[in-house]
């Protein structure tokens, strides 16, 4: 299992550092739009499906303009999907009231709410993934801090991110050493596990102390400034009004989609 | 136990977001006051450690299955509640953003279920009193109990948040019956993993385990118990059964009434008069208004449910207050005797 997470985070990191019109937008605009999107999606009624579908435009458009591979995002949604399926799969059994007809057969309301849960899951999950893939952790943390998240938390996120690769590599090396010495038996017993992870913990703590001394020797006095410049990617070349237009435009669209059944209107014109 | 957005309504999500955000701000403030610069890299590295440790599986003794560390409890043991909460929050945020493990709207709920409960309830109220300054066996017991109880509470939180949101049609009891046993197993695994790591570290470098510097005070323990009482009294009592309890059932079987008629002499009569006057919430319900206005049937049900909850909260608070008063009274007597 070990390598999977490591590779996934690396791919996301790579995407987050790329350049596209989406990446050039201010992180705050993107964060707020994502939040508005998720609130809009979750505010629909339990049985709503067709009215929700039009909201797929948001993640899809961002993926297209942001050069984010759609297959990558959909695969992640699919991997996370079993949870939503487990949550909703009892609905068709529990909610038996007939709500529609399909080819002459009555369809239980539970099916509508089940599919609605799945649609909402796909929408919210892809919106979150597109946010991080289209922004990158550094710009995201800076945007979060400017929106009011306590600086100590933004700093924590950045440190965690930065040292994840370092510690993960160390951990994977230790795992490989165990595998190589276990003659094919890959299962870790409890006490071996304790030793292994315990050693990793001690090494991590020692590493943290070395990092601290290095920081102090370079002038660290307790305050870390969170910035996204310094070669981490594209500077904000987008003028402020575009960010406002981005946020405002999408929010307007979400409101429209929420209170007017666009899909229904299209359908009735066919 | 990571909740997806699909389960949460915006109001529940928003409420828990507010709770988590204020907890983050509070922890940040507490850490600033502590002025421990070394915490900055340590917290980051330990967050990375937890992430990595979650990728390592061990086989659970006695069964064929494998498990891995969650990390909330061990972070609290190493760092104390405030720093631990921030680290857990950062791990959960990264998991949410990068792996879609838990939704953005539900992130607040997840932070409370998997961060607040281990850091502020399981560690200070269960692990620390048991494992305290003790040896290996006390650490094991403390870790197992803290992990199991903490995860049960977290699972309860998930069920409550789901129910309050009203998105899933799963009935409360069924969901509960599904969640609690699974999380019992997960809790045991977490307890084992935590205990074995803490055991190793304390045998090799004991100062690491004791260095969190967290001092629990009587005040914070009382607040914690009060919070737990409010939580349990307020929420679970909504689902309190209307059926007679064991004693009422037995009485009904014998006498045909749910309550005994009681003695009619002077002492009993004046006692029951006093009780009628002073009882704020007779029979755990709101007092029916004196004008005799009959409440509509459905609102009577609503009122009675909130009455039970409010009586649960009030009862918990009053009981705690009485306990604290008794404790102070005893303390004063002792210091008076010396």
Helix content of chain B: over 70%
* Total DSSP helices of chain B: 12
- Strand arrangement, largest sheet of chain A? 1-2
CATH-defined architecture of chain B: Orthogonal Bundle
Give the amount of beta strand of chain A, in percent. under 5%
Strands side by side in the biggest sheet of chain B:
1-2
Could you spell the SSE succession of chain A in H and E letters? HHHHHHHEEHHHHHH
Task: Give me the oligomer status.
Answer: heterodimer
**CA-atom Rg of chain B in angstroms:** 24 Å
Number of individual domains of chain B: 1
Topology (elements, then pairings):
The complex is a heterodimer of chains A (270) and B (338).
Chain A: H1 2-16, H2 21-24, H3 27-42, H4 50-53, H5 57-65, H6 70-88, H7 91-94, E1 98-102, E2 105-108, H8 109-133, H9 137-146, H10 151-181, H11 190-217, H12 240-259, H13 262-269
Antiparallel strand pairs in A: 1-2
Chain B: H1 10-34, H2 39-53, E1 58-59, E2 66-67, H3 72-79, H4 81-99, H5 107-131, H6 136-165, H7 172-204, H8 206-209, H9 218-236, H10 246-255, H11 266-278, H12 297-337
Antiparallel strand pairs in B: 1-2
Helix pairs in contact in B: 1-4, 1-5, 2-4, 3-4, 3-5, 4-5, 5-6, 6-7, 9-12
């Amino acid at each position: 299992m070990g390598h999977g997470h490591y590779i996934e985070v690396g791919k996301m990191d790579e995407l987050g550092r790329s350049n596209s019109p989406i990446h050039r937008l201010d992180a705050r605009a993107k964060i707020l739009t994502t939040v508005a999107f998720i609130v809009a999606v979750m505010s629909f009624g339990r049985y709503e499906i067709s009215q929700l579908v039009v909201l797929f435009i948001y993640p899809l458009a961002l993926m297209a303009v942001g050069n984010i591979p759609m297959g990558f995002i959909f695969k992640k949604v699919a991997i996370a999907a079993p949870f939503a399926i487990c949550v909703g799969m009892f609905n068709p059994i529990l909610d038996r009231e007939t709500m529609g007809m399909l080819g002459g057969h009555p369809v239980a309301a539970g099916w509508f709410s089940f599919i609605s849960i799945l649609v909402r899951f796909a929408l919210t999950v892809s919106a979150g993934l597109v946010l991080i893939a289209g922004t990158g952790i550094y710009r995201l943390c800076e945007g979060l801090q400017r929106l009011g998240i306590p600086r100590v938390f933004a700093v924590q996120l950045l440190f965690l991110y930065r040292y994840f690769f370092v510690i993960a590599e160390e951990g994977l090396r230790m795992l490989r050493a165990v595998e190589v010495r276990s003659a094919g038996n890959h299962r870790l017993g409890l006490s071996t596990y304790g030793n292994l992870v315990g050693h990793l913990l001690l090494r991590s703590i020692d590493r943290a102390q070395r990092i601290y001394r290095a920081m102090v020797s370079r002038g660290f006095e307790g305050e870390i400034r969170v910035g996204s410049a310094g070669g981490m990617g594209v500077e904000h070349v987008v003028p402020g009004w575009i960010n406002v237009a981005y946020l405002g435009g999408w929010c307007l669209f979400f409101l429209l989609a929420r209170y007017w059944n666009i899909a229904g209107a299209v359908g009735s014109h066919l | 136990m990571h909740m997806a957005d699909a389960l949460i309504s915006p109001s529940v999500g928003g409420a828990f977001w507010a709770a988590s955000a204020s907890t983050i701000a509070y922890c940040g403030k507490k850490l600033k006051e502590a002025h421990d610069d070394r915490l900055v890299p340590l917290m980051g590295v330990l967050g990375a450690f937890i992430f990595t440790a979650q990728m390592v599986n061990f086989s659970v003794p006695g069964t064929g299955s494998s498990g891995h560390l969650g990390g909330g409890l061990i972070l609290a043991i190493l760092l104390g509640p405030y720093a631990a909460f921030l680290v857990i929050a950062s791990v959960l945020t990264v998991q949410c953003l990068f792996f879609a493990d838990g939704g953005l709207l539900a992130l607040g709920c997840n932070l409370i279920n998997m961060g607040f409960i281990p850091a502020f309830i399981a560690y200070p109220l269960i692990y620390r009193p048991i494992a305290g300054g003790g040896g290996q066996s006390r650490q094991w017991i403390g870790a197992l109990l803290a992990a199991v109880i903490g995860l049960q509470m977290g699972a309860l939180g998930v069920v409550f948040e789901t129910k309050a949101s009203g998105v899933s049609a799963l009935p409360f009891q069924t969901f509960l019956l599904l969640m609690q046993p699974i999380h019992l197993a997960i809790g045991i695994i977490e307890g084992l993993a935590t205990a074995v790591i803490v055991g190793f570290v304390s045998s090799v470098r004991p100062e690491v385990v004791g260095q969190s510097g967290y001092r629990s005070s009587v005040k914070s323990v009382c607040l914690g118990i009060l919070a737990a009482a409010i939580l349990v009294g307020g929420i679970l009592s909504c689902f309190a059964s209307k059926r007679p309890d064991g004693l009422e059932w037995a009485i009904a079987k014998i006498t045909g009434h749910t309550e005994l008629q009681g003695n009619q002499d002077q002492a009993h009569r004046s006692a029951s008069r006093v009780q009628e006057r002073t009882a704020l919430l007779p029979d755990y319900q709101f007092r029916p208004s004196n004008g005799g206005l009959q409440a509509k049937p459905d609102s009577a049900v609503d009122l009675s449910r909130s009455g039970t909850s409010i009586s649960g909260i009030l009862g918990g608070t009053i009981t705690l207050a009485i306990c604290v008063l008794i404790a102070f009274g005893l303390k004063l007597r002792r210091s008076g005797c010396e």
